[in-house]
């Protein structure tokens, strides 16, 4: 496993296996619902934009049944208050040293010890914001890429069932190729 940290005291959801399920047409509506809920919770914190990203934001793509949302912030100044506002709604903060991605702050929505949502907080002008949207939009426009990505994700989920980071890392080349190729 990739994780160097001691997992002995981690919550169950932190080490759950990678499980890909068939596309669910309700994911789009679920994404809108999560954004609505987050807008209410984050209203005092100057969130400038929110987007449904990840595989659940792409029609006809198999995915882990987790709704990914990214939100833009002006700064990290009120991060502690944001985390406090989100915790009662089931969001758990993953510190950057555990997340391994300094460019974002990451929270996981947990229900009955399972991940239901991811919140990727990013600062304005973060290049990963644009990359996430480009990748999502390219796949929405190109069904042949959805089929290729679906097959790859299923294969990698089988190979990396107990290592979420390895699963994510193994998709990097495909994602980069899609970003480099641009729209159809």
TrEMBL record:
InterPro entries: GrpB/CoaE (IPR007344), NT_sf (IPR043519)
Pfam families: GrpB
SUPFAM superfamilies the record matches: Nucleotidyltransferase
Matches recorded under PANTHER family: GRPB DOMAIN PROTEIN (AFU_ORTHOLOGUE AFUA_1G01530), GRPB FAMILY PROTEIN
Name by which UniProt lists this protein: GrpB family protein
Taxonomic source organism: Paenibacillus terrae
